[in-house]
Design a protein that fits this description.
Layout: H1 2-20, H2 27-32, E1 40-50, E2 53-66, E3 71-79, E4 85-96, E5 101-108, E6 111-119, E7 123-131, E8 134-143, E9 146-155, E10 158-171
């Protein structure tokens, strides 16, 4: 009985925001259309800067819409020379109508967080705060079929690059929407 009441209460809480903005109605998808340039598969090169030195990896991105365009799934994979995965990240970009703002929920290396993402004339920018007066700023620029993104570690007045990638569109993708479980 307690589980039924808890489930009913949870369902009511989850339904309230959904009633205000039904999923897949198109209005969120319209807001998300500013990221349409990202859809597809991309490949290029990433440069990682660390205390151990500079490393170059083959970098890929695949990006596709979910929930009828209401959210955007983004997966970044960077490969070592031997083909092993050197870096893997996953993100969900969405628009919050209550805040009238975009956000990215990012996952990598056991870390996760939700951060504002600002659309610019040439791409987007976002920041991960990592401590008092420390952050990593990301700036993405799209130029035709070329996408460049750089990460810069900032501590007070000091800054240095952490990562940079430039990828070129290699094709379309039906990921992640393809292969859904069917009703039959």
């Amino acid at each position: 009985m307690r589980l039924t009441v808890t489930f009913a209460a949870l369902s009511a809480l989850l339904a309230a925001p959904a009633m205000a903005q039904p999923l897949g109605t198109g209005s969120l998808a319209e807001k998300m259309s500013v990221f349409d340039w990202m859809h597809g598969e991309w490949r290029g090169e990433a440069t990682v800067y660390s205390p151990q030195g500079v490393q170059t990896l083959t970098h890929t991105e695949r990006v596709g819409p979910m929930l009828k365009g209401d959210v955007l799934a983004v997966e970044g994979l960077a490969y070592e020379e031997d083909g092993s995965i050197g870096f893997n990240a996953f993100g969900i970009i969405s628009y919050d109508p209550r805040a009238d703002a975009y956000e990215i929920r990012a996952y990598t290396g056991g870390n996760a967080g939700t951060y504002p993402i600002i659309v610019t004339e040439t791409g987007y920018e976002w920041t991960i705060p990592i401590g008092p007066e420390m952050r990593v700023d990301y700036v993405a620029v799209i130029d035709g079929d070329s996408w460049t993104e750089t990460g810069t570690f900032v501590r007070g007045e000091q800054s240095f690059p952490t990562v940079s990638f430039t990828v070129t569109r290699i094709g379309e993708t039906d990921w992640p929407a393809a292969g859904q479980v069917t009703a039959e």
